[in-house]
Amino acid sequence: MIRADYELIAQGVPEESRVLDLGCGDGQLLAHLQRVRRVSGYGIEIVPERVVAALRQGISVLQVNLEEGLSGFSDHSFDTVILSQTLQAMRHTEEILREMLRVGREGIVTFPNFGYWKHRWQVLNGAMPKSEDMPYEWYDTPNVHLCTLYDFERLCAGIGVQVMERRVMNPAGRTVDLMPNLLGSLAYYRIRLQA
Amino acid sequence: MTRTASSVGIVTAQVAHFDVPLPLSSGAVLPQYQLVYETYGVLAEGKDNAVLVCHALSGSHHVAGQYAGDPRAVGWWENMVGPGKPVDTDRFFVIGVNNLGGCHGSTGPSSVNPVTGQPYGSGFPFLTVEDWVESQARLADHLGISTFAAVMGGSLGAMQALQWTIRFPERVRHALIIAAAPCLSAQNIGFNEVARQAITSDPHFHGGDFYAQGVVPERGLRLARMLGHITYLSDDAMMTKFGRELLGGTPHFSLEVEFEIESYLRYQGKKFSERFDANTYLIMTKALDYFDPARTAGGDLARALKPARAQFLVLSFTTDWRFSPARSREIVQALLDNRAVVSYAEIDSNQGHDAFLMENEDYFAVMSAYFERIVGECRP
């Protein structure tokens, strides 16, 4: 079972490049990239059970707390640093984006779009939104910094991060070009530091 | 995967003799020596499933199983090594070896020097981790093993595993570096020095040649071990285990044992002094102190590790203050700088440095997952 954003991410990752996957979970994405793109690199994960799952996937995993930054990695030691559906659960949002683009030449960020119409509809109806990409109740969600496409792009502009590519998908996994901040449920961004 | 774990059962130690002189880091040469070792499991036809377990300061070749007639003599890593255990002896051929300079059967200070007919004593050369690895490689040759599926160890044992990857890169596929440091800190060396002083200042030490006197520097050994034990445990674990209850409920105003921890340390010290050789303790602690692969690489650990080709698993324990997680991360950092294949886990444990010998769900899950990966590679 390959998650919808994995294919998209694989397209943005060059063959045989070096990849760092922040919040790699059970390691499926990196294992996928190793298979289809022959990348090398590491996953970073803090939850013990996921570290074990990632080891079973056959990837290199480092149990490090992302919130403490990426001090163990030297500048530009990776081609691509990936933050797949993890940004919204991070406390230090700006810090991790800066760290990503210090350690990697490019970054790939995916996150659930809070501006998706079904989310807006639920808020209009007076409830915190729940969906496939945001499956949690408000009281047990790990997400602390949910945002819309608009919000994310505003942050990037504010901290000198350039968006190189944006793809937005609906829950069926189809690309959304029309009114993406309303009709898209999952956002994919390829970013780098502004020259 | 619901196989029940069991023991390797009754084991017998074996001895390998070596007549080719072994040049040592110190400049001394051991003209001949023997290594005592144990093996568990079966060496595969392709000889690709061998795992070398390196022991720490007070360990031995007796890693797993029991000796016939002595069911209490259980191997020191019995929980880790055996059928269905993380290091599964149904799949791997596991070797435990007593290091040179030891006191469990390999040539050491208490062995008889063939030249003098007397125990080596103070005449036994100092050894380094590098020397041990050299001698272990000769044992591997003797057993017909050209490449290890894994070389592993905790603490001082991990330093040997690390040295293996530097000295014999082509002979190690995986290195498991557990509760380690790339070198001792000044504080670590300080503790070792106090332990050594305890031994050498014991009137029964006789400059290391106490064998002929028919005495043992028992008090020194006890103190050394008591001190060591404090550094192996975390403050928390000690408090939980021993607390500060007074034995009689109220102070005795005497120097007899009143607190549980006093009794524990005295017991551990006594037990140790009855089974361990004082000179071996001195040699082992000096080897710890000297280990510093970065020293000959301009202080650059990454450069020191450049030759390594192995895949690494580095493990640390949260409350280990002897070799803290930060020390393990130094090793990881150097490996990352070298773009080596490395995984790192920081195991949540309140057991301090000793955690590497204890059963712990997260720890064992990581070890099992990693060894299953190695099994995957062993299949033809």
Which secondary structure elements does this structure contain, and how are they paired or packed?
The complex is a heterodimer of chains A (195) and B (380).
Chain A: H1 4-12, E1 18-22, H2 28-37, E2 40-45, H3 48-57, E3 60-63, E4 78-84, H4 93-103, E5 104-112, H5 117-124, H6 149-158, E6 161-169, H7 180-183, E7 186-193
Chain B: E1 14-18, E2 22-23, E3 29-30, E4 33-40, E5 50-54, E6 81-82, E7 87-88, E8 93-97, H1 129-142, E9 150-154, H2 156-167, E10 174-178, H3 186-200, H4 218-232, H5 235-242, H6 260-275, H7 278-290, H8 301-304, E11 311-317, H9 325-337, E12 342-347, H10 361-378
Parallel strand pairs in B: 5-8, 5-9, 6-7, 9-10, 10-11, 11-12
Antiparallel strand pairs in B: 1-4, 2-3, 4-8
Helix pairs in contact in B: 1-2, 3-4, 3-7, 4-6
Structural account:
The complex is a heterodimer of chains A (195) and B (380). With 195 residues, chain A is an alpha/beta fold. Helix content of chain A is 32%, strand content 25%. Chain A has 7 helices and 7 strands. Chain A has helices spanning 4-12, 28-37, 48-57, 93-103, 117-124, 149-158, 180-183, and strands spanning 18-22, 40-45, 60-63, 78-84, 104-112, 161-169, 186-193. In chain A, strands 3-2-1-4-5-7-6 form a 7-stranded mixed beta sheet, with helices on both faces. Chain A is globular. The termini of chain A are far apart. Chain B is of the alpha/beta class and 380 residues long. In chain B, the strands form 3 sheets. In chain B, strands 1-4-8-5-9-10-11-12 form an 8-stranded mixed beta sheet, sandwiched between helices. In chain B, strands 2-3 form a two-stranded antiparallel ribbon. In chain B, helix 1 crosses helix 2, helix 3 runs antiparallel to helix 4 and helix 3 (186-200) runs antiparallel to helix 7. Chain B has 10 helices and 12 strands. In chain B, helix 9 links the parallel strand 11 (311-317) and strand 12.
